[in-house]
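Input record (Table S2, row 349):
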Amino acid sequence: MNSKIKVAIIGSTGYGGVELIRFLQHHPQAEIVSVISSSSSGTPISEGFPHLTDIMVQDLDGVVVEEIAAKADLVFTATPSGVSTKLVPQLLDAGLKVVDLSGDFRLKDGASYEQWYKKPAAPASYLEQAVYGLAEVYGDRAAGVPFISNPGCYPTATLLGLIPALKAGLIDHRSIIIDAKSGVSGAGRGTSLMTHFAEINENFKAYKVNKHQHIPEIEQVLGDVAGEQVTVTFTTQLVPMTRGIMSTMYATMNGSYTDQDLVDLYREYYKGRPFVRVRNAGVWPATKEVTGSNYCDIGFAVDTRTNRVTIISVIDNVVKGAAGQAIQNMNLMMGWEENLGLGLTPIYP
Ligand SMILES: NC(=O)C1=CN([C@@H]2O[C@H](COP(=O)(O)OP(=O)(O)OC[C@H]3O[C@@H](n4cnc5c(N)ncnc54)[C@H](OP(=O)(O)O)[C@@H]3O)[C@@H](O)[C@H]2O)C=CC1
Ligand SMILES: CC(=O)N[C@@H](CCC(=O)OP(=O)(O)O)C(=O)O
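Output record (NDP complex):
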């Protein structure tokens, strides 16, 4: 096994960054050498996060690329969209490996990024260089590369739920409808009216309907899998819970299949992949069954009356949707077992 890799976390005061710290502290092959903040450098991280008093590296560093390059081998950029666009090229040019958690390098087409994110795209050469890190689908592309773009939270749950059926031709790609719900931590730590307690508690609201920035990401990957253009209907909703995404997908089947046919197909597709668990026929997953873990759990319900299938996929948005998947990608980049440092059972209840 290789020697320990030195890692730095930019955005370590955000939800993704704090979750990276939680897992990396116990990673057998990684050592956190720098926790970085653009707004609180020079202060101990435990000042804002008292639950982190036991982490070895306490003082928050500033975002100084040369200093990061002098200390670290690999950087996790858990930074907002628009920030990674500018930061990641500098880190790569300084010789660092990067796993970026933002949406800035997921879309290969810069014009599409600008349309959906309403921000300038990163230079095309860096978009090309980024390997899209949906580990269970593209994991074989990750070994030895310097730069992984971590998938979005909604796309992770959705794509893992759809790809085996689409690839096998079981579902009609023109019929896909995705109804996705997220806990409020998906919006990050910053406060807004959208996630304000009085606005979301005992409430359930749709947002960005047909306008969500994850639509082109989902369509890009489904198009790649299907070998032709795929468009989807995608509705996102905010649920009054802290963590968790449930993506419920509907599609017309191209033949007559049973729940068990889908279970068998998905178990075969995800054979050997430690983080996708396919439920037995008739058993549907719940968000609490993956909380705090890197699992994606998937269940099915075939409706013979309508000839449609309902696919239900759940993840913890902060883990499999962000920090956990980022560590899984680091493991694959380094040629390690993909579940290294991630073997936690979900927190229940
Ligand atoms: N939350 C989730 O479930 C998921 C998040 N993501 C993506 O991961 C990234 C991080 O998300 P999340 O942790 O939730 O977001 P947060 O808003 O919780 O944290 C983002 C952090 O980025 C830092 N930051 C802000 N501006 C800058 C800057 N100019 N330079 C350097 N750092 C900066 C801030 O820390 P400071 O002020 O200390 O520098 C802040 O704490 C985002 O791109 C998000 O879209 C992806 C999948 C799921
Ligand atoms: C609940 C909630 O607000 N979720 C966010 C997910 C943001 C995110 O992860 O953004 P990128 O993947 O594009 O970086 C949203 O729907 O925009």
